[in-house]
Task: structure prediction
Amino acid sequence: MARKTPGINTGSMADISFLLLTFFLLTSSINTEQGIPRRLPPAKKDQDKEIVDINKRNVLNVVVNFNDAVWVNGEELLLSQLKDKALEFLENPNNAPNLPEKELIQINNMGEYAVSKGVISLTNDQSTSYNMYVQVQNELEKAVNELRDKVAINYFGKKFDNLDTSARKSIQKAIPMNISEAPPMDYSQTK
Amino acid sequence: MGRYRKDEKKDVPEINTGSMSDIIFMFLFFFMVITNMREASLKVQFSPPKASEVQKLEKKSLVANIYIGAPIGKNENTLPPGKVSVQLNDQTIKAEDLVNDVKDFIGTERESRSEADKAKLTFSLKVDKDVQMRYVNTIKQELRNNNALKINYATLKRSEMSNQ
Result:
């Protein structure tokens, strides 16, 4: 009485898995999380003290006002000029007296390096658009990245992104990302 | 050049579809691995600004999202003075509950992570590009007050060429 069991028809299997596939395609998003990472300062306390200590030449005052215009140390700049201004400020290639001081610090892999004491102070208005704010952050980030690349090529012969972790840490120490955010202004309140 | 002979009759063998499902399954697994599910439905309009110097976040499981933008529905809670909503988890928050809601949100996000991951938890600010900074500033201040200092401004990648 041995009967052959009929084989299961697998033809529809493909349809079922297609269905699953389309479901996942529709419900998921491929775009990965990306953006500009920042660290906020801790709330209150000793932060006020630090700002007093900083010399005037060590501060680059970047203000994004209610009109989305960028003012740097009292003069208006185009967004495209901001990167070069910040780069000059952070690098201070000729040790100009009006640009930030430098301090010799011993750094692994790099020996003594003159680390700039410059701090970029970023102020926004309550009416500044978020888009402009991000563009300014982006330009500042670009200046730091460019400088890091330059130093990385000088010392290690490679761009910053291609370095290993320890060299990266050294470069980050040599060129810190010092952006401090001042409390926002409010143009609409002053009227 | 090859020539076809019309009189020759050959049976075209049927294509074996048995392995088709395997191939599709492979696709399926591929997509399941590389994608992430949308965990919350958006209640606000969110089109991120574009920037060139973006970095990818390390791990999606270490990211908590805060959405800020114009509300999509009519009945969403908005913050004064403009028409802007802040969405945490699945709902927009009321102006008067803002302080407590943000605190609760940070608390629950921290609770759901392991001890080692708590320090790495990043709060990603997904802010629409037309929003005024006052709302972002408020949220940032609340994050600072709750000692959630690792943040991220979500942006799209813009290539350098289109920038010029």
In short: The mean pLDDT of chain A is 83.
